[in-house]
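Practice problem: predict the structure.
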Amino acid sequence: MFSKDNWDEILEALSANWFRTLLTAFGVLWGIFILVILLAAGKGLENGVKQGFSGMATNSMFMWTQVTSKPYKGLPKGRRYSFKVDDVTAIKDNVPNLRFVSPRNQLGGFRGTNNVVRGLNTGAYNVYGDYPEIIQQQPMDITTGRFLNYSDIQDKRKVAIIGEGVISGLYEKGEEVLGSYIKISGVNFMVVGTYKKKGNNNGNVEEAQKEIYVPFTAFSQAFNRGRDVGWMAITAQDGSSITELKNQIFDVIKSRHSIHPEDERAIGNFDLYEEFSKINGLFVALKGVAYFVGVLVLLSGIIGISNIMLIVVKERTNEIGVRRALGATPWAIRGQILTEAVFLTIVSGMAGIAFATAVIAGINFALDGVDTSEMMFLNPSVDLGVIMTALAILVISGLMAGMIPAQNAIKVKPVDALRTE
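Answer:
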């Protein structure tokens, strides 16, 4: 129940020595400030790292062939083999809960020789033979024109979608790109679209824009790949984990290519979902560290408040004795001391939260005019849940800070208290 007299007494007690109160409150202010800043910095780092996965189907894996390491059915170890187009159909038919199974072929690369020509300009670029689904598995913005479609696949059209890095290397500034032709390993392809990759592509942003996408069927025909598949991008449906399904996929491939069931080296893979889960686990751990460090710093402030409340109780021994003599119950005395401790803790803690919020707002304002697409730090912030958790910590801390002084206060006998000078 609200009592104006009690609150007047609390404010009078805390303002009697305002400099001492201010220094004590600063410990709590600093502790909660550190806690909020650490949590916001962790969130900013998480946002920056996950920006690299922006638009990407993280529940995916990439799979390629390697050399067998075990003999099987009369076949020697060290045998090489290739995925086939029929393997894609077999995986779709035998492994449930798969969203996409995209066969891919590739040639060239920025470390290779020049494989793309336009007029007098040449360049070394990664060229991918793909199906239209790949745009839903890897982040990409179509800036002009269009992406691959199934008419391109069925008609084996020699069309290409090129990145901004390819444009800057093969075209003059302002030159029309759509409808022009580029020669890939001696074969002409018409440009029907341009793209820009999303995210930071694991720090390799520049090379991510230097890629060319052509229909898988046209690639196979133009470069004599037949029914071979270089590698696959496989995505599981929502609610299913590609990590749990990949062994079934491996079993299908091993069965079709006479590979020993226990041969773990014959099929190479990169499990993007597994790596993404590790990153999520890392940020959960970082949040735990932030809370741990912040609470430890806050604890030092709470100890300060507890100490100052012990001094306050000592200074008010006569007052407590008078109140006890006039009939004040131990709970009334305890409640008064606890209320003072909680009030001081919450006020100083809220000031710390306000200060941290101002700092975070300043950082976001500074980042507002900066291109953060390639940064590993983005939009540091804390949500309402963090603020509510901080308030709960403050209330609990205030109760802890006032508990010992309150117990000391009610142990004072009225007669002894009145004798104290």
